[in-house]
Amino acid sequence: MSLDVTLQTDPGAISTDPVEEARRQIEICNACRYCEGFCSVFPAITREKVFADGDITQLANLCHNCRGCYYACQYTAPHEFALNLPRALASARTDSWERFAWPGGLARTFQARGEALAAALVIGTALMFAAIAGLPGGGAGFYAWLSHGAMVAIFLPAFFLPLVAIAIGLRRYWQEVGGTRITWADLRDAGLAAGRMKNLSGGQGQGCNFEKEERFSDARRHVHQAVMYGFLLCFASTSAGTLLHYLFDMQAPYGFWSLPKLLGVPGGLLLVVGCAGMLMLRKKADPELGTPGRSSGERGFIWLLGFVGLSGLLLYAVRGTGLTGPLLALHLGGVLAFFLLTPYSKMAHGFYRFTALVRDAQDRRARGNV
């Protein structure tokens, strides 16, 4: 196949600007259309003729980096077009998260030095918890080490302030991509796509090419599902404990057959398994198809999330022993670090990607493609 469309720009003029380079490659893809049946990115590309900066941002966040388009493309290097769409969209995507992050600059810092910053924050906050653990707890279980009031005073702001930062970033994103009023139908379509991880199967149900290059695999979709549902179960466990405490005056510690434990233990296991799987797949994947200069931030986020799940499980296993205090400090340090870093780590990609799916649902509905 050859391009039978005259491109508006020089197809060989590679740009160092992530948005401009993504635009150059997308224009070539739009002329070729060989990958039109792939993930949601390519049908979205074909719906446009001219790509504004907001269009590039939307397409970049709609991309799940499954890499199938790269291995199917006839215009990759050594061709003069030198297409590497997964890398170009990954660069534009990360650039958008860093631009939209509030306060500015923190996301770029974490992405460049994620592992060191995550480890330092976990250790620092763990030492803080260890220092205040000697204060009277006034309760049973973990509250004997740290009172319920102290936990609320520390974690309530640490939970809501990052949500405010994420909301500001998403608002900036929504304005740039030209989003309109959100309907329940938009949320339903986006939720179904996210829940099934549809785009991690290349949109055709064959799997993606993340770690096996030209061979298809569902491994990345499965580990993403493990992490996502593990996180949701852990969040549901915490929510259930909050409701039991405040509405039913049932205070921790809770037994294994209680709702918080029935949700939290499987959630922790899924987090650990999913994060371990992600790290293994990353070792097999071609780094040249990912975001340049951001591998430390990506690994740091995975290690931090896996540590939170693992330390929670170990804490439950050693409760009532002398290891409870040190492990509690480490676990709470990990949780606090995770909350504080959420707007600036790759955890933010879940929020932006879901918002991109909502915007895509709007666009498809407006054009009659639902």
UniProtKB/TrEMBL annotation:
Keyword set includes Membrane: yes
Keywords: Membrane, Transmembrane, Transmembrane helix
Domain of life: Bacteria
Entry-linked InterPro entries: Citrate_utilization_prot_B (IPR012830), NarG-like_sf (IPR036197)
SUPFAM superfamilies: 4Fe-4S ferredoxins, Respiratory nitrate reductase 1 gamma chain
Transmembrane segments: 116-136, 142-168, 226-248, 263-281, 301-318, 324-344
Keyword Ribonucleoprotein: no
Protein name: Citrate/tricarballylate utilization protein
